[in-house]
Structure prediction request, 250 residues.
Amino acid sequence: MRIPIVAGNWKMNELIGEAIDLAAEVTRRLDGASPAEVVLCPPFTALRAVGDTIRSGPPKLGAQNVHWESQGAYTGEISAPMLRDLSCEYVIVGHSERRAHFHESDENVLRKVEAILAAGMRPIVCVGETLEQRETERTEEVVRVQVENGLRGIGDRLRNAVIAYEPVWAIGTGRTATPDQVQQAHAFIRGIIGEMAGEAVAGAVRIQYGGSVKPSNAAELFALPDVDGGLIGGASLKADSFVAIVNAAR
Ligand code: PEP
Prediction:
């Protein structure tokens, strides 16, 4: 029995005051009861304030990035122990925006995953193909490389990881993958996890879908057998739409 997980990736949005308001509104509307594990991932600058705001409610705190070293001369970077110190429980890694704009490689994803797990947090590892890769029928090849290289050697600890399947062409575009495409990709990823860590781990790992999830399509996507909630970008910036998506996991 996998508990669905719905995470809001706020990206580079929300000043501290706005972040507090949004987190407070989400917490109030969830009203102590949530059909899914809920994670809010504000920008670094608002982590402390959002953490304080959600302390007594269901949402958990997540970060959007981390450096793999725990300390040292890495100007501008934030380490996993620093995030844990702020009560973060999750960290997003390998998001397609970081892969595209900041050259995040699978090797770096793996280093980050190791650092996150060592600090007692859980990684949300994003994988997914571009439109060109899908159109040239390379989706499975690309996703396999990302999963195998980004999670190499993690073994049984994969139980503590969340994988987010996010087709790049569906992120922020309003274009959602069809239920068939989503189920096929999720089952494929679960199969790879089975090869890497065994069937028991594969059955326990949660695989979120991300890419233009909205209140109108969330229930259909979340009902798919291998979908365990979602990673939500744009629709997580409004309490109304985010809470409606969380409730679709019911
Ligand atoms: C994302 O950035 O992870 C994402 C899924 O964005 P959106 O929901 O806006 O497509």
